[in-house]
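[Meeting: bench + compute handoff]

Bench side (C.D.) handed over the final construct sequence. Compute side (W.E.) agreed to return the predicted structure before the next meeting so the bench team could plan truncations. Sequence as handed over:
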Amino acid sequence: MKNKLNIHIPARPALWILRLGLPIIVIEGIAILISYLNDRKADVLLANDLWSTALSDFLTAVIVAVGLAFFADAIDADIQKRKR
């Protein structure tokens, strides 16, 4: 007997959230990094102070996108369970 891997594939709404949200977040991250590196050339301490809030906003956006995908997947699984 072979053990089958039980891999959960997210539902279609969760995949749409990730497909739309994550590229936007990556573009935002690249813009933050470029701006931070430009400001860091002038003053390291000021750049660290200014861009620390942008980094926390970036991490929050990642967490919200992944959380919304989990939530959408849970809602879709509940709907599918109720249909049966």
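W.E. noted at the follow-up: DSSP finds two helices and no strands in the chain. C.D. will use this when planning the next construct.
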